[in-house]
Amino acid sequence: MTKYERISVAPISGALGAEIGGVDVAEELDDATIGEIRQALLDHLVIFFRGQNLPVARHKAFTRRFGDIFIHPNYQLGQEDKEMVYLLRQPGDTSVAGEKWHADTTMMETPPMGAILYALETPAHGGDTLFANQYLAYEALSDGMQGLLDGLNAVHSDIRVAGPQSDVNAKRSSKVRDDANWQPTVHAHPIVRVHPETGRKCLFVNSVYTMHIEGMTEAESAPILNFLYNHQCRPEFTCRFRWQPGSIAFWDNRSTLHLAIHDNFDCVRHMQRTQIAG
Ligand code: SIN
Q: In this predicted structure, what is the pLDDT of residue 172?
């Protein structure tokens, strides 16, 4: 177990997730503290901070301590600042961004390594976020299934979540590109990914972006992929985070899935998010 000297680290479930204490992320943090935060992310896959005050400039500055800011290709709707994504849920919305299990933006050639989500406004209850550990999901598979998946690639696309055919904008306040010039982004990735920092194997498919196994049709791939989609979010692989204004979730997008629970029907939930380039 890693020893932390500058931060406190309190796990919130047996599978993943830890609350970090003793740090104000809006401050200029020294390299040793950033190093411990990065280590906590690798150890716990998603880390949480409470009671933070993170104006846009400080949110970006904190993000840059972990890598370049990733520009989301589908959320650029005339907003001047392309580095920040706002996820807004308002009364009347019948859908929220991220309400199915997914890793972010996996249709990119190099998907982002992580995301830092900061709560501006949250409902009194509801609107929690779930996370799932994809190392555990891989390790719980039989030797036979691991052997079958090792070496296979899956094709990922954003065709279900952006563009005019996706029809998501009518249902929610967080809008994505749906103009006629929009084109899907499509790339293949290994189904079993070796994490570049920990060297551990994890599952890297999700039901939002993954379309089919490379070299197979969607129909041929479906039995295997549907099995994996059900398996990879088993309760014992998950944790659940309850938000308050000023909370932050920082997840490793390479080894986790997440899901925004859509259970707060007449409340406002307003989040500010950066992503870190892979
Ligand atoms: C996301 O999918 O990135 C958003 C998660 C959330 O709003 O809880």
A: 86
